[in-house]
Every structure is written in structure tokens, then in C-alpha cells.
């Protein structure tokens, strides 16, 4: 069982207090003007934006040097944390940087007449979208907390040339375009020419004087770029070190002189290819050689870098590496790190197996992000062996020793041994990365109480039987700086006025809102800030889609990756049901009219995910019909906003009245979108899943619109043999909805377009949409009823905010520090 029960709600972590920062306006102004003078396009907004980021980066770089100097002197007091992640979904950096430097509010005064506004500066910055969704955004929030809490740390990632694809909608269908975020350069990063490491691939293993040594067939150089991330109310900054692949040698000059120009440069392409693109799917292993190469490239460069730093700081004391360094695996994507660390300790530093393994285990920890079997990473043995022959030897040795331990503990249980082995022997032999991560880690955590419980009951049950103390829970959190202070200045000012401004650094302060939540004036002020945000979103929808929506309608929002388990389709079934009900019964469900609603979707589908892409198309088909039906008017509008990402989320979330968190119970590991919405005063309609559960406990269960089957019920129904067709036959409303979709009511009478989608619902419905439909629709009516009473709605929303103190990323990182990394608290 996880060490921490779900009920243990600790108070928020308090970042170390700092002396007020010096006024940097004069420095900033001077740097800005110098940077602008070097631009040929000094008139344009792009140039002013670039000059402002260069000025801010220069000031942050000074803080970086001071932070590093302080950390190098920390001695044996604290571990340094190395957070390895294939994804960091950073979004824009400008606002956060200016806020950290204390320059955001005074910007116009600082830059003087004719200078661009903060909004104009921000608008020209592309998102750094080096991640797919929640997992990558979590990593970005962690960097914010590392700096804010003053944790000695490095984030390590890849510097993808193209991040998450840009989503275009054409005729209701998703088109993917390459993301060109580096086209104008990246003013936030610093090239570190002195930090470059060779990373090998392929080749063979030779024996040399008792040591094994890997002789790779090819070598690619990993060049470091640092992305500096500031903290809140502190001079400390954290670093995201991103690796860029470079060829280890220049063009083949002889080939070039023979006129074979392409052949002369073939290896350049081969190396650069490595960080061309982020894999556009966060839930299925890409199963491709390039992905495995990317993973090893990240791991090898990062481990070499941290070893070099450790040896420099400790005067070559390799033995203390595990005591002074944490190596954290964000999901299994960097799970080769312990194997690479073992290789370097054994082969390069000459340690014996036992000491190398002790050091590796002392350093390594792992966060699991999903229990879905199809999302578990494994690699075919022949591919693994061809690319990483020495690492395969090490994996075999780890496995042999590990399985001996299993057999000693569970004699005569070869079935168990086969389940637990690092090698899946069924069919094509494969290396199991989750198993490698668990075996090599001292601590393994899930990301919400429910998920961590399920993790030890299902996916890792065998491992929990062997090592119960290894598993724990750390519930996710989000940064209140970006997601409240910067995204929602109106609400932030109201909070400052009502409970003081301490919530930015200690989100637990929000609970002071609870006794005031019923206040009439506060409720009205809250609704006023919400209204302004809704007007801004309505303007955006009109600009983007040419669609007029009523800013007084209830804004009902579901924005996240499009995935069957997240059940955007259930939301859409409700939209269709409501549409049909409005047409059939204009007087409303109880004769008092319909509560006007604007339903907003946004999200990307993985490029190869057919069902998800069909859902996007169906949303557009339904929107076309509903939005143009004169019988409906503003009682119902449906908007799909293309190209979901951090910056779009920052516009949409502050404007939401209702947050849709409706995954099938037991499938969403945690969710973090749910937290951002509640923090911004949206009420949640949600299933008893992921972190929704802890949120409901924090705000009081009655303050969330909870519906649907619970995890145990889902399991029972599936075990008993679920027949979705019974729901279709029994529920007239549901039947009307599905018949209309399959009958072509939204697809110009094209009966085939959604035949497959509906057939799946009627025959398998693996995510139980039909089983939860009636409960969902009934709960939506409760939402309408409360929304019709503005004072009661405002009170509910304020109680939601008041209960969100636990979900700060500062609390999350405080728990990782204490429970996972065991880094002594500073001071
Ligand atoms: C928060 C966030 C997510 C995660 O959303 P979930 O609703 O938890 O899946 C994904 N993408 C972006 C851009 C986000 O900001």
C-alpha cells in the first residue's frame, strides 16, 4: 500500500522567505534598448518582444550563476535532484519571467513612451510546446516549484526542433502541421558551448583487462542549451537543460571532393534527425527506433553531465554519488538512466557490481503515470541489442540477480517469475521498461491517491508483495503563479483584496475564503471578474470561428487531449440530447425555459488515433447543425477551438463556469486540468476518478457535481459481462441521440461516417459511456438549476477555490523532497 493514506492532507509547503528584490527597472530598460538597437526590424512587435526577452534572460542569467554557486557549496546537506523527462510543456516564458523580476506591473513606466504593452510583448512569443499534455505540463510546473522552493536541481530534456504539432481544422477534420517554434530563434535559451557529450549507438562489447567496454559504431554529440526558469518571490532560478544532437565530425571532405555531396553529409542528417520531432503521442509507445534513440540520447547525455558535475564538486569522489544525487524518471521514457549509470560506474569508473548497484538504487526513483496496458513501454530485444549491446548485458545481469531474489522469496512459483522478469518471454521477446524502472528505484510513486492504490493492486501487485515499502503516492499539483496570478489577474486582485496576497507562495491560504464564501458582495465581485474573462473568450471565439456566443450563457468547457477514456464523446452525447430536447420542448425541462449554454471543446488527437479524430469531426458536424438552427438560438452553442496548448488554456480556463472531468472511473491517473479550472472558480462536473476525488474531499463532496460509476462498479460490470445495448434499448433519450448520429442527422445524411463509432458504443463501449449517460444528463440538469441562482453559484465556486490549497505544485514538490528524494529541507 502507498505510505500516505488519501486523507492525509498536509498544509501547503511554504517557500523560503526572501528579502524583497532590488528594483531592476533601470537595468532592464538599458538591456532592452541595447538589444533593440541590434535588430534590423526595430519597429516591429516581433523585435520589441525579442529585445524584452533578451533583457529578461540576461537578468535571469545572473540569478542562474548565483543559484549554481550556492548549490555547489551546499556540501552534503542536500541532494541535488535531476528530473529526467522526454517532455516539458512550457508554454510562453515572458509573463512569468517579468513577474519574477518584479517588472510586469511597471512595464509601461519602465520602457517609456511608445513601448509595447505587456500583452503585445506576450502575443508574439510562440509556445514552447515540447510535450503532449498533462505529463509534460506537470514537468514544467515542477521547474517552477524547484526554483520557488530553492531545491538544488536540474530538469533534463531534449531540444526538439519541432514540438507538439500545430492543429488546423479543415472541413471539420484535424490536419497536423509542423510546429515551427524555433523559426525566430529562442531568446530564452543559453547555448553552453563547453557542455557537450558523446553519445554512442550500436557497435559491440569488448573485454579489456577484466572490464567490459562498449565500442559504439556511431557517436553523436549532445550539446547543452539551458532554459532558465525563475521562481516566485526568490532570486533562485531553475534550469531546464535541453540536449541538441550534433554530428561528431564534419562533412566527409574526400567524398565531397569526388562530387558526392549528399553522401558527404549523410551522417549530418542522421544525427540531426534525432531531435527533429517530439513524438506526438503520449500514451502508446511509438515502437520506433528513433524514439528509442531519443530516449537513450536524453539519458546518456544527462547522466554524463550529472556525473561530471558531481566529480567536480566532490573532488572525484564517485562513491558519494548516490548520497548526493537524485535521478528521477518521469514515466518510463528515461528508464534507461539506471542502466547507463551502471555502465559508467562499472566500465568507466571501475566499480564492482554491488557498489555500482547500491549507488544506482540510492539515486533512482520513478513516477508511474498510467496503468493502461497498451501504454506500457517495451522494446523488442533485437532492436535493443543492436542499438545498446552493453546495456542489454547489464539488463540481463540486473534481471538474473533480481529473479534470484524473487525465487528465494517465492519458491516454486515460476508463473510469478515470468510475470516479474525484465524480459517478456511471450511471443517476440521484449524488454519491459516499467519493470526496469521499478527494480532500479528506491521509491515508486503514482500521481493521485486512487491511482497509487490501483497501481499497487494491479500493475505492480507482484512488486508490492515483494517490496511494499517501495511504493508511495504524491498527488499532482499546478503552479498558482502561471495558472492563477498570471492567467487571471482579475480574480487574483479580488483574492488579494479579500484574503491577502499570501496565496501565491502558500496556496493553503485560500481556505480563508471559506468563511466568506456566502458573502453577497464577494459573490457579485467574483461573478464580475468571471464575466470579464468570459467576454474575452467570447471575443476570441468570434475572431477564431466567426461564431457569436452569449457571454451570459453558462460556459461549459472540456479541454484536454482527445482520448476515448477522457470521454469527450460522452460530453457530445449530452450536447446532442440537449439539442433534441430544446427542439422538442422549447419551454424547458420544467417549463421555465432552458439555461443558455456554450459548450467549448479544445484538444489534439494523436495523428494515428482514428477514433479520436472521428470524435473531433463529430464535434464539428454537430456544431454546424446546432449553431445554425434558428430554433435553438443562444440556448445552445458549440465551439471547438483549434490548436489547444498552454497559451490557449490560459485564455479558456479563467472563463469557464463548468469544468468537465468525466473520464471513466479508474482511468485518469490524476489530471491537472481539473485543478486549474477549480482554482479559477469553475465548478466541476466529474467522475470519482484521479485527483477529482481528493479535490472533492478538499472542497466538500457536496460542492462538486459528481456522477457515474465508481472504479469498483466499473470492474464489477465488466466482470459480469457488460452489454451496452441494454442501455440503448432502455433509455429513449440515449436511443434518440445514437439514432440521429448514425442516421446522418449531423453528417448530411452520410450514414457511414459514424457507423463505426456508434457500433463500438453499442457492442463494446470499453469506457462505459452508455452506462454513465443517464447519470451524466441528470447531473447536467442540476448544474443548470444551480447556475440559475447566481448567488448560490458564486458561493459554490468560491468554496471550490477555498478547497484548492492542497493542489499547489509547491506542496507536491515538498512531498517529493520529503518522501521520494529525501532531500533535507533547507534551513
Ligand atoms: C493542464 C494541461 C493539460 C492536462 O490536462 P488534463 O485535463 O489533466 O488532461 C494538457 N495540456 C495542456 C496544454 C495543459 O495546460
Automatic annotation (TrEMBL):
It is an enzyme of class 2 (transferase). Its cofactor is pyridoxal 5'-phosphate. GO terms for molecular function: 1,4-alpha-oligoglucan phosphorylase activity. Its EC number is 2.4.1.1. It comes from the Bacteria. The keyword Transferase applies. The keyword GTP-binding does not apply. Residues 1-21 are annotated as: Disordered. It catalyses: [(1->4)-alpha-D-glucosyl](n) + phosphate = [(1->4)-alpha-D-glucosyl](n-1) + alpha-D-glucose 1-phosphate. Keywords: Carbohydrate metabolism, Glycosyltransferase, Pyridoxal phosphate, Transferase. Allosteric enzyme that catalyzes the rate-limiting step in glycogen catabolism, the phosphorolytic cleavage of glycogen to produce glucose-1-phosphate, and plays a central role in maintaining cellular and organismal glucose homeostasis. Phosphorylase is an important allosteric enzyme in carbohydrate metabolism. Enzymes from different sources differ in their regulatory mechanisms and in their natural substrates. However, all known phosphorylases share catalytic and structural properties. Belongs to the glycogen phosphorylase family. PANTHER family: GLYCOGEN PHOSPHORYLASE, GLYCOGEN PHOSPHORYLASE, LIVER FORM. This is Alpha-1,4 glucan phosphorylase.
Amino acid at each position: 500500500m502507498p505510505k500516505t493514506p488519501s486523507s492525509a492532507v498536509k498544509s501547503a509547503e511554504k517557500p523560503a522567505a526572501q528579502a524583497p528584490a532590488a528594483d531592476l527597472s533601470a537595468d532592464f530598460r538599458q538591456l532592452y534598448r541595447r538589444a533593440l538597437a541590434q535588430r534590423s526590424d526595430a519597429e516591429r512587435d516581433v523585435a520589441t518582444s525579442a529585445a524584452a526577452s533578451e533583457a529578461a534572460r540576461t537578468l535571469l542569467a545572473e540569478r542562474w550563476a548565483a543559484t549554481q554557486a550556492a548549490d555547489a557549496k551546499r556540501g552534503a546537506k542536500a541532494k541535488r535532484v535531476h528530473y529526467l523527462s522526454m517532455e516539458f510543456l512550457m508554454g510562453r516564458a515572458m509573463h512569468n519571467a517579468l513577474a519574477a523580476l518584479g517588472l510586469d506591473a511597471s512595464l509601461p513606466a519602465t520602457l517609456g513612451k511608445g513601448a509595447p504593452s505587456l500583452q503585445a510583448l506576450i502575443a508574439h512569443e510562440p509556445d514552447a510546446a515540447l510535450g503532449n499534455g498533462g505529463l509534460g505540463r506537470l514537468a514544467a510546473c515542477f521547474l517552477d516549484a524547484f526554483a520557488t522552493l530553492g531545491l538544488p536541481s536540474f530538469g533534463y530534456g531534449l531540444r526538439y526542433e519541432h514540438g507538439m504539432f500545430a492543429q488546423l481544422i479543415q472541413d471539420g477534420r484535424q490536419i497536423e502541421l509542423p510546429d515551427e517554434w524555433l523559426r525566430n530563434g529562442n531568446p530564452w535559451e543559453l547555448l553552453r558551448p563547453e557542455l557537450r557529450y558523446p553519445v554512442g549507438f550500436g557497435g559491440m562489447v569488448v573485454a579489456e583487462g577484466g572490464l567490459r567496454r562498449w565500442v559504439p559504431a556511431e557517436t553523436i554529440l549532445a550539446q547543452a542549451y539551458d532554459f532558465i526558469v525563475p521562481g516566485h518571490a526568490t532570486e533562485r532560478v531553475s534550469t531546464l537543460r535541453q540536449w541538441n544532437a550534433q554530428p561528431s565530425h564534419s562533412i566527409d571532405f574526400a567524398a565531397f571532393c569526388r562530387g558526392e555531396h549528399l553522401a558527404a553529409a549523410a551522417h549530418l542528417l542522421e544525427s540531426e534527425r534525432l531531435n527533429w520531432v517530439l513524438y506526438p503521442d503520449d500514451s502508446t509507445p511509438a515502437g520506433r527506433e528513433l524514439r528509442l534513440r531519443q530516449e537513450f540520447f536524453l539519458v546518456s547525455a544527462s547522466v554524463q553531465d550529472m556525473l561530471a558535475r558531481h566529480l567536480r564538486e566532490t573532488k572525484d569522489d564517485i562513491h558519494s554519488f548516490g548520497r548526493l544525487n537524485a535521478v528521477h524518471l518521469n514515466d518510463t521514457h528515461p528508464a534507461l538512466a539506471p542502466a547507463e549509470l551502471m555502465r559508467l560506474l562499472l566500465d568507466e569508473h571501475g566499480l564492482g557490481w554491488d557498489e555500482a548497484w547500491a549507488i544506482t538504487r540510492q539515486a533512482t526513483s520513478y513516477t508511474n503515470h498510467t496503468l493502461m496496458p497498451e501504454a506500457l513501454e517495451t522494446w523488442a530485444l533485437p532492436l535493443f541489442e543492436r542499438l545498446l549491446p552493453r546495456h542489454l548485458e547489464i539488463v540481463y545481469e540486473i534481471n538474473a540477480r533480481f529473479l534470484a531474489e524473487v525465487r528465494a522469496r517465492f519458491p516454486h512459483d515460476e508463473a510469478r517469475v515470468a510475470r516479474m522478469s525484465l524480459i517478456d518471454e511471450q511471443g517476440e521477446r521484449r524488454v519491459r521498461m516499467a519493470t526496469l524502472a521499478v527494480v532500479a528505484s528506491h521509491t515508486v510513486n503514482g500521481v493521485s491517491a486512487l491511482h497509487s492504490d490501483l497501481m499497487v493492486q494491479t500493475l505492480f501487485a507482484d512488486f508490492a508483495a515483494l517490496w511494499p515499502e517501495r511504493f508511495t503516492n504524491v498527488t499532482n499539483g499546478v503552479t498558482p503563479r502561471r495558472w492563477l496570478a498570471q492567467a487571471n489577474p482579475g480574480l487574483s486582485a479580488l483574492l488579494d483584496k479579500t484574503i491577502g496576497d499570501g496565496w501565491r507562495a502558500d496556496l493553503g491560504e485560500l481556505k480563508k475564503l471559506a468563511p466568506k464564501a456566502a458573502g453577497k458582495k464577494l459573490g457579485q465581485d467574483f461573478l464580475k471578474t468571471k464575466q470579464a474573462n468570459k467576454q474575452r473568450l467570447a471575443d476570441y471565439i468570434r475572431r477564431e470561428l466567426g461564431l457569436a456566443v452569449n457571454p451570459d450563457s453558462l460556459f461549459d468547457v472540456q479541454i484536454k487531449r482527445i482520448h476515448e477514456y477522457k470521454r469527450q464523446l460522452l460530453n457530445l452525447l449530452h450536447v446532442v440530447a440537449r439539442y433534441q430536447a430544446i427542439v422538442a420542448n422549447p419551454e424547458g425541462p420544467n417549463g421555465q425555459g432552458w439555461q443558455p449554454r456554450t459548450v467549448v471543446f479544445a484538444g489534439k488527437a494523436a495523428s494515428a488515433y482514428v477514433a479520436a479524430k472521428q470524435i473531433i469531426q463529430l464535434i464539428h458536424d454537430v456544431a454546424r447543425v446546432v449553431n445554425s438552427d434558428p430554433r435553438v438560438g443562444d440556448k445552445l452553442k458549440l465551439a471547438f477551438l483549434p490548436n489547444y496548448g498552454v497559451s490557449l488554456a490560459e485564455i479558456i480556463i479563467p472563463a469557464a463556469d463548468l469544468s468537465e472531468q468525466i473520464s471513466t472511473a479508474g482511468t485518469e491517473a490524476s489530471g491537472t486540468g481539473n485543478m486549474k479550472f477549480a482554482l479559477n472558480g469553475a465548478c466541476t462536473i466529474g467522475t470519482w476518478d484521479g485527483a477529482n476525488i481528493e479535490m472533492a474531499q478538499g472542497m466538500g463532496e457536496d460542492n462538486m457535481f459528481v456522477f457515474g460509476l465508481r472504479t469498483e462498479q466499473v470492474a464489477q460490470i465488466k466482470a459480469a459481462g457488460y452489454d451496452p445495448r441494454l442501455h440503448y434499448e432502455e433509455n429513449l433519450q440515449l436511443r434518440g441521440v445514437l439514432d440521429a448520429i448514425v442516421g446522418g442527422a449531423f453528417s448530411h445524411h452520410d450514414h457511414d461516417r459514424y457507423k463505426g463509432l456508434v457500433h463500438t458504443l453499442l457492442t463494446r463501449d470499453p469506457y462505459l459511456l452508455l452506462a454513465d449517460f443517464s447519470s451524466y444528463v441528470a447531473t447536467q440538469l442540476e448544474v443548470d438549476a444551480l447556475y440559475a441562482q447566481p448567488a448560490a453559484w458564486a458561493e459554490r465556486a468560491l468554496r471550490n477555490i477555498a478547497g484548492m490549497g492542497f493542489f499547489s505544485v509547491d506542496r507536491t514538490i515538498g512531498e517529493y523532497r520529503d518522501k521520494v528524494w529525501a532531500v533535507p529541507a533547507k534551513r
